[in-house]
Amino acid sequence: MIGLPLVNRFVIAERAVRTAAPHQLLDAVRRVLVEQYAADSVELFMADYGLTVLQPVSVLPHTMEPVSVHNSPEGRAFGAQEPFVEDAPGGGSVRAHLPVSVRGDRLGVLSVVLPGGDHVRGCLAELAEIAEVLGREVVVAERDTDLYLQARRKDRLTLAAEMQWQLLPGRSCTRPEYELGAQLEPAYAIFGDNFDWSATAEHLMLYVTNGMGEGIEASLLTNLAINALRNARRAGLPISDQAALADQAVYAQYRGECYLSMLMFDFELATGRAWVVDAGSPQMLRLRAGSVERVELEAQLPLGMFEETDYVAQEFRVEPGDRLLFVSDGVYAVASPKGEAYGDAALARAIQATRLLPAAEVPRAVLRELTGHRGRPVPDDDALVVCLDWLGR
Fold it and tell me: TM segments (predicted)?
């Protein structure tokens, strides 16, 4: 079987993954890699919601320990989004760690123990493709099984956090024109902050929400607003009308007692022209040519504060090489023990310090810096960071 042409065994592997039952994807990958690639062992690790560990995919009771995202071979492959090969214990074999991603959304790592030498060099690129196929099938399988969602949590989610995570489009996305990354903290007990995005051939629409309240009430408010925006967006309406319809939906439910702040963007991929509705407190900072500055926008009323508010889209432009960071008040307003707000100077320093990181890694790095600035591990509010690297056409 090992002597089959490479293309044939890849097709066999792809078919095995594609036809496996949703809860048996790892079993299918393990079986075909043992048969076709002489693998000794195969394990799948999923990144947890806090992006701190890689959790093994297994049925309860779990017998394998999670590994760190930051200082492990698996974490190295996850962070670099490149295969990483190390010697396996015992000699003669190697362990290949392969990123499992879908269109830039980093899901986890597939770790495979293989014979060393020319064997692994000859099949590493193909194994990386199989890991990518597995990633796509995991995303599809999550409609039918909780196995992979369970593997993403090292702690139990609050109900509010469960509702919020189910709203999100992913945590990162890559296209030729841009790269996106986003992170919410505290990951297992978030309240009302949220982000959303949607792309077509010509446009990227991006939404950054600063929620109001706590717990289930905050989550219900955000769910209503996000779904109202999606309903308007899918009807083909411009962002100003999307904001107006979401505003009406929230006001009709809460009569002004609850509302939420939002930044809404419509980027034209071909030109870098963008339209924005600034409906509240999230802020935008831009790293351009080595300098960080806050982008001042025309402030408008939060969604749902008053009945039938009219919204106007403001135009601005992004240039190739621009990095935009969008942050909630749980980031820029956080005070240090000495009373200095994070957004005064520390946030700009964090943006400079992370300028060489890819967009997908920036939000988590900025939030780590925020924890140090705050001086205590437990935050008082949601913290949301979204990073957009504009590459242009």
Answer: none
* Contact between residue 387 and residue 182 where contact means Cβ atoms under 8 Å apart: yes
Average pLDDT over residues 354-373: 95
Whole-structure pTM value: 0.93
pLDDT class for 1, splitting at 50, 70, 90?
very low
The encoded tokens of residue 55 equal: 């959790």
| Sign of the four-CA dihedral 216, 221, 224, 227 | negative
CA distances from 126 to 8, 73, 121, 131, 132 (A): 11, 20, 10, 9, 10
The CA distance from 375 to 66, in Å, is: 27
Q: Tell me: pLDDT of 21 over 70.
A: yes
Q: How far apart are CA 269 and CA 217, in angstroms?
A: 36
Residue-wise pLDDT tens digits, 245-277? 999 999 999 999 999 999 999 999 999 999 999
Check: CB of residue 81 under 8 Å from CB of residue 72: no
H or E element that contains 355: none
List C-alpha distances in Å: 39 to 2, 42, 73, 166, 353.
11, 7, 18, 35, 40
SS3 for 96-144 is EEEEEEECCEEEEEEEEEEECCHHHHHHHHHHHHHHHHHHHHHHHHCCC
Crossing angle between the packed helical segments 346-353 and 362-374, to the nearest 10 degrees: 140
Spatial distance between the Cα atoms of 178 and 360, rounded to a whole number of angstroms = 11
